[in-house]
Amino acid sequence: MSEGWAVILGASAGTGAAIARRVGRDPGMRVFGVHRGRYDDLAGAVVADVEAKGGAMVMHRGDAGTAEGAALCAAHLEALAGPRSVRLFVHSIASASVGHLAAGDPMHPRQIQKTFDAMAHSFVYWARELLDRDLLAPGARLLGLTNPLDTTLLGNTALISASKAALEVYIRHLAIELGPLGHRVNLLKFGTVMTPALDHVYSPEALLRLRANHERMIPAGRMCTVEEIADFVALLCRPDVDWFNGATIDFSGGMTLRLLDLVLNEGDAAKKSPEP
Predict the structure, then answer these.
(1) What whole-number distance in Å separates Cα of residue 106 and Cα of residue 100?
(2) Secondary structure class of 187 (helix, strand, coil)
């Protein structure tokens, strides 16, 4: 990987932290991580890990999920990195509300706006800031992260599904706009991975069920790891994969295919089973 900076949003924990640790090992790649301050101890551990491997990392505390926050964070980055120095930008912000859209106790408009800002709109805000400040290096890679929720009707996740669908559309249009400038904009889709964020959503018992269900769904019989995702992100920075642009890259390990297979097979089995 050439000399330059990797900008990782949501770098304190989970997938963002794993990506920061991985690209921070590459010679000449310095890491600028952004986090909201929710996991200060974990953020410090990421920086320590990168530096222990001989890399360099700056962890900036700020709200990367709004237009104003993106501008403030980008200004700090500009003072550190200088022009045409950002070779990799990864949008790994996980901040969403769950609940109903209309029935029962629907989510407040502020929750809708905040979710779309963090999960979708902020990718556009950052692309603008990096471009307007002349921070993108020649052949820069801009990468969004998504998951199979964008095509499911899993209960209470309508906002996540809708915002991820919007992100995919943004990726395609930005690929067209930035492609003539030599940059590449893509979206990486992967299945559920075990991260600290899940601990705030599920009980320990529910997490065990979640893991067991995913082991049934995924043909390999196990869940993907954040390290595997990070390795693939590093691979996308290589010049010999330059032709990826405007793509939604399926890195789910066949999870969605197996899910459909399970639903169909269980449905057939239910029809054939004798009544009690």
Answers:
(1) 5
(2) strand
Query: Which candidate, 152, 192, 144, places its Cα nearest to that of 169?
Result: 144
Look up residue 58 and give its amino acid.
Answer: V
Tokens of 21: 């640790």
For the chain, list the domains and their CATH numbers: 4-204+225-254 (3.40.50.720)
Torsion region of 37: left, alpha or beta (phi above 0 gives left; psi -120 to 50 gives alpha): left
DSSP string, 20-78: HHHHTTSTTEEEEEEE-STTHHHHHHHHHHHHHTT--EEEEES-TTSHHHHHHHHHHHH
**Which residues, including other chains, have CB under 8 Å from residue 116's CB and lie 6 or more apart?**
159, 162, 163, 166
User: What distance in Å separates the CA atoms of residue 121 and residue 166, rounded to the nearest whole number?
Assistant: 8
Q: By the 8 A CB rule, do 163 and 120 touch?
A: yes
What whole-number distance in Å separates Cα of residue 19 and Cα of residue 230?
4
Backbone dihedral angles phi then psi of residue 140, each to the nearest 5 degrees: -65, 150
What strands, in cross-sheet order, belong to the sheet with 136-146?
Answer: 57-61, 29-35, 4-9, 86-91, 136-146, 184-189, 248-250
Q: How many helices (H) and strands (E) does the chain have?
A: 10, 7
Q: Give the C-alpha separation, 223 to 80, whole Å.
A: 37
* 215-255 pLDDT per residue, tens: 888 888 888 999 999 999 999 999 999 999 999 999 988 88
Contact indicator for 190, 231 with CB cutoff of 8 Å: no
pTM, two decimals, is 0.89
Tell me: the pLDDT tens digits for 3-59?
A: 899 999 999 999 999 999 999 999 899 999 999 988 899 999 999 999 999 999 999
